[in-house]
UniProtKB/TrEMBL annotation:
GO terms for cellular component: plant-type cell wall. One of its GO terms (molecular function) is pectin acetylesterase activity. This is Pectin acetylesterase. PANTHER family: NOTUM-RELATED, PECTIN ACETYLESTERASE. Belongs to the pectinacetylesterase family. Hydrolyzes acetyl esters in homogalacturonan regions of pectin. In type I primary cell wall, galacturonic acid residues of pectin can be acetylated at the O-2 and O-3 positions. Decreasing the degree of acetylation of pectin gels in vitro alters their physical properties. InterPro entries: AB_hydrolase_fold (IPR029058), PAE/NOTUM (IPR004963). It comes from the Eukaryota. GO terms for biological process: cell wall organization. The lineage of its organism: Eukaryota, Viridiplantae, Streptophyta, Embryophyta, Tracheophyta. Residues 1-20 form the signal peptide. It is found in: Secreted, Cell wall. Its EC number is 3.1.1.-. It comes from Gossypium armourianum. Pfam families: PAE.
Amino acid sequence: MKRVLIWVLSLWSIVGIGWSRSEDGLQELKAKDRLLSFLEKDAVSPGANSLMIPLTLIQGAASKGAVCLDGTPPGYHLDRGFGSGSNSWLIQLEGGGWCNTVRSCVFRKTTRRGSSKFMEKRLNFTGILSNKAEENPDFYNWNRVKLRYCDGASFAGEGQNEANQLYFRGQRIWSAAMEELMAKGMQNAEQALLSGCSAGGLASILHCDEFKDLFPSTTKVKCLSDAGVFLDATNVAGGHTLRDMYRGVVTLQGVQKNLPNTCTSQMDPTSCFFPQNLIANIQTPLFLLNAAYDAWQVQESLIPSSADPHGFWRDCKMDHSHCNSSQMLFLQDFRNQMLSAINGFSMSNQNGFFINSCFAHCQSERQDTWYANDSPRIGNKAIAASVGDWFFDRTATKAIDCPYPCDNTCHNLIFK
């Protein structure tokens, strides 16, 4: 049965028209933060028997300049593997958008996305992080790590803004975290999977080959990007909202020096922050898990409030079932762009993908979408089974759904 998840939003946080005052700008940033929280985590509450894993701060990270936006140390949550998974490691890079201006980064410092002071002391491990075989059949007994995201540039920035006491140290956070985890046993890994959701999904693409290079050639290493295929798409007003944002991220946070030269030698740095221009050149086996109508991109890239001042798209944006035929054609074109973006990537036998025709975001971390009786499927195969088949080379996994509305297994997100 089709499952729908509903989020209740106050009108100002959806429409957001005419932010002119300082307070209004702050409210807009808060609204965006709440949207991220809902899409990535808060839509599914921890159950009574949830696995809650404590936060570990990386001691000594500050001496290496590996700090969050506000200068606090970065952190992670580690649940040790057992049995046959004792020497296998799964690293999940947390998502949570980006900050592209001094103002948005200063705001971010006041949240868990920019400071370890505000991070949860314990985090719920579900989906691909679950320790139960019935919830996570292939990775349940691995060493599972959630690396917290507090830099605002997909773990790729390098620089600082002294006037506003902002530290752009995403790349250093990545390096410090990997160094610590290697010392805690990851150096002995027989197999390893680098995963991530949303901005963490982009990070898993950016750092995929770096991750592979940490290990000897005998270690089986692959990467998984969940909801990380952010497209350089045109919004409903003909603008390029995401490109404009990415330009700010890359410029402000000094990301250019950490982007792959296979891309920057041919394209501008902003283009090289888009996965579509990176994935074909990644040497390590990579799996793309993405909703064809990614809910965050629909909300923030395709139909941002600034591109729809008269609210023509508002009902469609909040509930895809309210889209008229021309609006649905626009969304179908976005799906076509996504399929086109992975065309070259799909030619490699080592790569895999699961592109379902859902209005969703981050399907690996949520138990209901990762592996459950009613979880999304393509060809009657759940996401967890598809990823596992690909990682362990049981069978090739290159699954693309037929266009909306053919899939009745989606857990679509509805905004009210």
